[in-house]
Amino acid sequence: MMLETGMIDRGLVTAQGKAVPLIGCRLAGRLLGRIADWTVTQRYLNPEEQPIEVTYLFPLPEDAAVCGFSVNIGDREVAGQVEEREKAFDGYDEALAEGDGAYLLDQERPNVFQLSLGNLPPGAEARIAIRFVQIAAADGAGVRVMVPMTVSPRYVPENISKELKSEIDRVTPPYADAVPYGVTLDLDVEMPVPIRIVDSPSHPLRVELDGCRGRISFGRETTAPDRDLIVSIGLSETRSLSGFIAEYKGHDHVVVECLPDANQPTGDRRKTVVFLIDCSGSMGGDSITQARRAVELCLRALRPGDAFQIVRFGSTCKPLMPRPVTFDQDSLDAAVKQIRGIDADLGGTEILKALERVEEMVSEARYELLVLTDGQVSNEEAVLNWATKQRSRCRVFSFGIGAGASEYLVKGMARCGGGSAEFIFPGERIEPKVLRQFTRIGSPVVTDLSIDWGLAGADPAPGEIRSAFGGESLLVGARFPAGHRIADGHRVEVRGKTASGEVRWTAVLRRAGGGGLGDGAALWWAREALRDLEEPKRSGGQGSNQKRDSASSRKREAITLSIEYGLLCSGTSFLAVERRSAEDKTTERAVLRRVPVQITTGWHGRPGLQFGLTGIMAACAPLASAVIGAGGVPGTLCERMALFSCDSSPSGRSAPTRKRSVAKDPGSPGFLAHPPHADESGAIDAYDILIMQLAEGWFELDPVLTDWCGHSRDELLSWARELTVPGGIDAGKVIATLLAMHLLQTRAATEEDIWRAGVLKATELIERHKIDAPGGVSPLKWLESKLGG
Question: What's CA 687's distance to the chain center, in Å?
Answer without folding.
Answer: 22
